Amino acid sequence: MKPTATSKKISSSEPVTIHSPLSSAADLDPLIQLIGDSKYVLLGEASHGTHEYYIWRTAISKRLIEEKGFSFIAVEGDWPDCYQVNRFVKSYPDAPVKVTDLLKKFNRWPTWMWSNWEIAALAEWLKNHNLHLEDHHKAGFYGLDVYSLYESLDNMLKYLSTEDPEAAEYVKSAIHCFEPFHGDDHKHPGNISKICKEKVKALLLQIKSKLPGYDKDREAPLNTEQNAYVALNAEKYYSDMLSFGSNSWNIRDMHMADTLERLMKFHGKNAKAIIWEHNTHIGDARATDMKDDGLLNIGQILREKHQSDGVVLVGLGSYKGTVVAGPKWGAPMKIMEVPEAREDSIEAMLHNESATNRLIISEKQKGVYRKSIPHRAIGVVYNPEREHWGNYVPSIMAERYDAFLFFDETKALHPIHTAPDKSETPETYPFGM
Length: 433
What we know:
Strand content: 15-25%
Distance between the termini: 36 Å
Number of strands: 11
CATH architecture of the domain at 19-145 and 272-432: 3-Layer(aba) Sandwich
Mean pLDDT: 87
Order of helices and strands: EHEHEHHHEHHHHHEHHEEHEEEHE
Shape: globular
CATH topology of the domain at 19-145 and 272-432: EreA/ChaN-like  fold
Largest sheet: 9 strands, mixed
CATH class of the domain at 19-145 and 272-432: Alpha Beta
Radius of gyration: 21 Å
Oligomer: single chain
CATH superfamily of the domain at 19-145 and 272-432: EreA-like (biosynthetic domain)
Low-confidence stretches: 1-7, 419-425, 429-433
Number of helices: 14
């Protein structure tokens, strides 16, 4: 996405937004009403390291699961790691007793995205919610992302070595192909692409032909098939990225959308999905400059394919605060200052109207909300000094989202890999959630 130049402050003559105050879970009523019987609810975030985004997505998710029977939460995380969280929240026999023991195993940078106290609290709530439900009614937790090439291959090998030794040989062949680069996805070379691609294709075909026999538990076929798809699409993703192709973004989002389709099929005709991803994935790409570069995302894909089933896109953003991020890829995480939003942005406009948190329903908005306006997007790599020339995506807010949660000031997430400050317990259960 292209950085945009700083322009003048939004004119005070522009219409103010119509909004609802946001201080408790009850204030989400207009959003719950908007969602209605929709089957897909996508919850965004303007960064991967902001406390408020996680706890408010938790508040929304809890209401959707309790009041509307949503089937699962699917996140911008790796399938193998998140699948272990899924087994924890459903109390499978092999699941660990403590969720923190599980989340500490999330070792792919940025570890803090899912290894944090806010997610620990959500997982504990899901487990308690599921405790007395039948297996097919338990709410799940899954990862949609494509990065876990080696972990997915390793997981398949462990399972198939006893369940299907013939298929395990296909896994071994694929692992052998990638062996020289094992443990460092970013060194996967394009020149072995053709050989490895054929091996993972053969693996997937073998797995699909044997799925009915993988009946160790009801989710074993789903897990095995998904790991095979991760291996196939991760190979495509890394090959494109490292050959300086321009399609890696689309490969990744199409993989996430296809994974969601498999999850919906597994959970049956009445399945409903909650998706947690960055705004750049869930906000309709057609309402941003992403479309100029030929980029799409899961929000656009779902609207195009499933609008008749109900698709609600919810963005989240803030004016200032602190965030957990890294100064470069793989660097130690830091708590960084998020400066006040630039003067021509939607965040500044909302702050200037009122320095309060609120819920905005897009269909009620006029004025700048229906024009292209800079909208902040912070990644896992962040440099606050570049804030005012980068980190903003030109967006038509009313078309990008169906609703937007604005927070005037936010604070950093609480990673599990960093000992929490004992003087301030992480506020993972606000307003009685």
